[in-house]
Amino acid sequence: MNRYIFFICILAFQSSVFAQKKTSGTITYERQESWSKIMSQMPYLSQEEKDRIAITNSRNTNEFKETYELYFTPEVSFYQQKQNLANESSYRYSWRNSMYVIYRNFKEKKVREWHEMLDKIYLCEDDLIKPVWKIGNEIKDVNGYLCMKAETRDTVKNQTVVAWFTDQILTEAGPEAYFGLPGAIMELNINGGSATITAVSVRFSEEPREINFPKSKAKKVNYSTLNKAILKFMNSSIQAQKNPFRSLRY
User: Fold this and answer.
1) Of the residues 183, 209, 215, 243, which has the fewest C-beta atoms closer than 10 A?
2) Strand (E) or helix (H) holding 30
3) Rounded to 5 degrees, what are φ and ψ at 12?
4) Average pLDDT, stretch 153-159?
């Protein structure tokens, strides 16, 4: 408890010092996935098969890396892929290099998400609904920023998501589907390291940046429709003893 109080005091002090200049900028993230960890969660595999996959992948590079940027201001955020760092395992997932762009308007409480999956591009337009976070008292450093732990659940993909956030950067923005904490999310850990999204650099700027939305033709949906499509595909894939995340974003 004393450690928790000490952490809050530090954040309060740092917030007062940096509040005037750390409200807008761009955070660059590195996204990594572990193929063996993702495969080990497939319910149709026996323990022997899971062990064999772990041993095989331990001899090879089984992580895939991508780079994303999150532009943020007090009113909006914009998340998109910056650079694809290809490796030999990229063939395993058909969604790689596919469109994934998220625009959030915190002032209007609206979201627009371009999500390419299952050979279609969806434009999801909906109200901005924050994930349900449980904030803990653990702390750690992420790229030079003191961060605090928070946890939530993705009930569609059945994932436990741990976020590390800092209020040294005064925004509720975050990468992927996650936001709504009292400070920028600097790291996400999905299902025990099956996927991680970690901030590798932060650039602050009060100059407004032009946001270029995708111009691709897309099917308009809301989150309810999109999540039903994801859940249906996941269930049918598991029943057919196939890994759904070959075609879906993990």
Assistant:
1) 215
2) strand 25-34
3) -65, -40
4) 95
Q: H/E element holding 14?
A: helix 2-18
DSSP E strands: which ranges in the chain?
25-34, 63-72, 76-85, 100-105, 110-117, 120-127, 134-142, 145-154, 159-166, 184-190, 195-204, 219-221
Residue type, 54: A
Contact between 167 and 11 (Cβ < 8 Å): yes
Q: Output phi, psi for 179, to 5 deg.
A: -170, -175
> Which of 84, 131, 82 lies closest to 104, judged by CA?
131
Query: What is the residue extent of each domain of the chain?
Result: 2-246
What residue type is assigned to position 182 of the chain?
P
Output the six-digit token pair for 223: 């989150």
Dist CA 208 CA 205 (whole Å): 8
Tokens 């450690």, located at residue: 3
pLDDT one-digit tens code per residue, 164-184? 999 999 999 999 999 999 999
Beta-carbon contacts of 154 under 8 Å, excluding residues fewer than 6 positions away, are 161, 177, 190
Burial of 187 (0-12, 13-18, 19+ CB in 10 A): buried
